[in-house]
């Protein structure tokens, strides 16, 4: 059995899948990730003492902006209407936990937008705290759930 790759044409060249004929449907995706930090950075985050300012606010805005710009970063991603983005950040004993949910009513899903939101929010956290500790690291960026579209509901098993 020969598998057909959706993003390659008959000659093997990269292409964007044509979704023109698909009907728009409500779709959502949630992704998560974390920035692992040492105790000194976590203390500075909790005390609001990071010299660059409000880390969580900057990361939240960065994640929202990134979700809306995903097709500029990923060459085969479709330009879609990103109708809702929520980026939640929480300081934990290990660092910063990030969750992003993206919603649309369009022809294709928002999994890449949710993953991009988490990734860029994590990069923003790193940028804000790297002066305190260069060993911080991004970990476990992953899709948690998606809904809508032809494949329907999916949720990562615990």
Mean pLDDT: 93
Q: Which sequence of SSEs, written as H and E, runs from N to C?
A: EHHHEEHEE
Count of individual helical segments: 4
**CATH topology, what is it called?**
Alpha-Beta Plaits
List the strand order in the largest sheet.
2-3-1-4-5
Structural class by secondary-structure content: alpha+beta
Strand content: 25-35%
Reading off the top of the CATH hierarchy, the class is best stated as Alpha Beta
CATH architecture: 2-Layer Sandwich
Give a description of the structure.
By secondary structure, the chain is of the alpha+beta class. The chain contains four helices and five strands, in the order E-H-H-H-E-E-H-E-E. The protein has a single domain, classed as Alpha-Beta Plaits (2-Layer Sandwich), CATH 3.30.70. A five-stranded antiparallel β-sheet has the order 2-3-1-4-5. Strand 2 and strand 3 form a beta hairpin. Helix 2 packs antiparallel against helix 4.
List keywords for this structure.
158 residues; Alpha-Beta Plaits; alpha+beta; 5 strands; 4 helices
In short, what is this structure?
The chain is an alpha+beta fold.
Which SSEs are present, and which pair or pack?
Layout: E1 25-36, H1 39-47, H2 55-68, H3 70-73, E2 84-91, E3 95-106, H4 111-129, E4 137-147, E5 154-155
Antiparallel strand pairs: 1-3, 1-4, 2-3, 4-5
Helix pairs in contact: 2-4
């Amino acid at each position: 059995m020969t598998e057909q790759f959706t993003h390659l044409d008959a000659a093997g060249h990269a292409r964007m899948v044509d979704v023109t004929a698909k009907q728009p449907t409500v779709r959502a995706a949630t992704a998560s990730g974390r920035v692992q930090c040492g105790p000194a950075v976590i203390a500075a985050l909790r005390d609001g003492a990071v010299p660059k300012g409000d880390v969580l606010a900057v990361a939240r805005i960065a994640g929202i902006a990134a979700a809306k710009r995903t097709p500029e970063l990923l060459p085969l991603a479709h330009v879609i209407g990103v109708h809702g983005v929520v980026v939640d950040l929480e300081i934990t004993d290990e660092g910063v936990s990030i969750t992003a949910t993206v919603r649309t009513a369009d022809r294709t899903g928002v999994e890449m937008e949710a993953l991009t939101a988490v990734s860029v929010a994590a990069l923003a956290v790193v940028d804000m705290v790297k002066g305190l500790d260069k060993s911080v690291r991004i970990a476990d960026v992953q899709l948690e759930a998606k809904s809508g579209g032809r494949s329907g509901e999916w949720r990562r098993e615990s």
